Structure formats: C-alpha cells, structure tokens
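Researcher: Good morning. I'm working through a list of sequences from a screen, and I'd like to move beyond sequence-only analysis. For each chain I'm collecting a predicted structure so we can compare shapes side by side. This is the next one on the list. No need for commentary yet; just the structure.
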Amino acid sequence: MKEKQISIDKFRIIAAILIIAIHTYPLISINETLDFAFTHVFCRIGVPMFLMITGYFILPKAIQDRKQLIKYTIKIAKVYLICMILYLPVNIYAGKLKGIDAIGILKEILINGTFYHLWYFPALILGIWITYLIVKSMKNKKSAIVFFILFVIGLFGDSYYGISEKIDLTKNIYNFIFNIFNYTRNGLFFVPIFIYLGYIMKDKKLNISKMQNLIFIVISIILMILEGLTLYYLKLQRHDSMYIMLIPTMIFIFNLIIQNKNENNRELRNISTMIYILHPIFIIVVRGAAKVVHLENLMIENSVVHFLLVTISTIIFSIIFEKICLERTGIFGHFGTKRNVPNGHGDEEK
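Model: Good morning. Structure tokens for this chain:
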C-alpha cells in the first residue's frame, strides 16, 4: 500500500522564521513583556520542531540499521564544517578567538557551535546518538522516563535555574555542568526528548480530531506563555529555552502537522535550512546597511522593521541560492529528502 506523504515542509519554514525572531527581538520596541512572551516563549517551538522531524524520519531507520545513523551523522558534520568556515571571519573580526586555548577551541567546536546559532549541529549529533542508544537498550516506557529525567535536569539549569541556585547541592552540580556545557539547552538534556517524541509519534499519533487538536494547541501555548512570564517576573531564568509546557505544546503541534497529507517539497527543505544557517549574516548586513544610509532609527531601532528586513532578505537570498546551487548538490538539505521517486515515496532525511 502506498504510504501517504506528509506536508511538513511549510512548517520548517515557519520554524526557521521563528528562530530569526529569537535573534532579532521583533516586538521589543513595542513592549518588552510582549516581546518576551513572543520571542523567548512562543518562538521556542522552532528548534524542537526540527528535532521532532528528525526523530520522526531518521530514528526509525537508525533503529533498523545503524549505518543510516552513521551516514546521517557524517552529513550533519559536513554541513556543520561548512557553517564553521562560513562564520570564521565573523568570529575573527569580533575577536572571539583571541586568547582561546586548544581546550577552548574543542569546546567551541564540539559543544557550543562556534557561533550562537550553530550550537544546534553538535547538539543534534550528540542528541540523536544518545536517543538511539537509549531506545535500543530500553523499552519505550523506560526510555520515556530517562528522556523526561534528562529534560527535567536541563529545565532546572535553564528556566528554573533560580530554584536550583538556592540549594547548595544542586548549585554545585550545575556549576560542574556549566564547566562543560555553557547551557543545559544542549545535546544531552534538551535534544533527546524531542527526537524521541518525533520517533514515537511515527506509530502512535494522538487519536483526536483536528479541531480538538487545535484547541489543545491553543491551551498549551497559553499555559506555556503564562509559565514563561511567571518565571520571567520571578527572575528564575538563567536561560529561556526550556519550559514544562513546551513538551505538550510540541506534541499537539506535531500531531496536527502529521495529520496533513501532501507531497514533500525538497526546495522548501533546502530553503528552511539556509534560512537557519544564514540569518545571522543578514542581521549583520541589515545593521551595516542601516549605518551606511543613516537609517538606524528605522532599520535597527524599529524592531518590527528590523525583523522584517532580516527575514525577507534571508528568505530571498535562500531562494536564489537554492535555485542556483542546492537544487543540484543537496548539500544543505539535511532537514529534508531527496526528490520523490517515481512510485511517489519520498526518501525522507536520507
């Protein structure tokens, strides 16, 4: 029986745009609290979306054949290497490499990502291997418990850190963790649970209607925003990537996505990847252009305009680059598939 395709690619674009918002604070010139609720709470669904997509498509193949996971790891490592080279001049110009020793360089490459958004690549590699090993060695219920515990540990080093900091024992434990990782939003504590959720939802979708699903999404998002604002006002956050309500929010959003059946679109996958990789460059370009034309008040200080300029320019360049280069090579298509083969099956994430 022919497997139905999943219209997941437009959600990749949305997720990539939400990540641009995280780095441009689009509502900050309107209202600081509104910007926090949107940027530092709602937009946090962007990265988990990519992780769940990976879990949905990659992990089942990896469980059956570890060679698929090795192949995927090599592909992500190649993309990451290109990204590091791309952002090396920016790091040199910013003086980030001054005084850094060999251990520091290794930490940047293997953990931090060398640039603020590139943390995703080493975290993805570490996270998918951790998820694979746990799923292979344990039954689903035990695996779920382990992933949840890891997430909770990360949670109290992230948005709930203010609680951990007040207890000497936990404070010392997290100080040790932060000597290794800059954040608990990483491949050990943050990534595995979302890859796992994508994996189990391959066969265990929620048996609810689309309308019920939408209602649960709205409720979950509202509760997540309330959670984030409460933590924000109580000043408990060390970082703001991890929330309790992020898990149910992502489950319901992803469940809605996989209910939509359509042909896959490799071009959109490539474009979403390029948007994620390139948007910091266009933040720099827009800021530089604003200074050249003396329109800082409009292009930088007006956060909505700044966000729109960065987003539009990144998307336009990504589309052009995809048409010229990526369509032939597929180098950056690591979130996506090869083109659909004649029988209609897309070989997702291969």
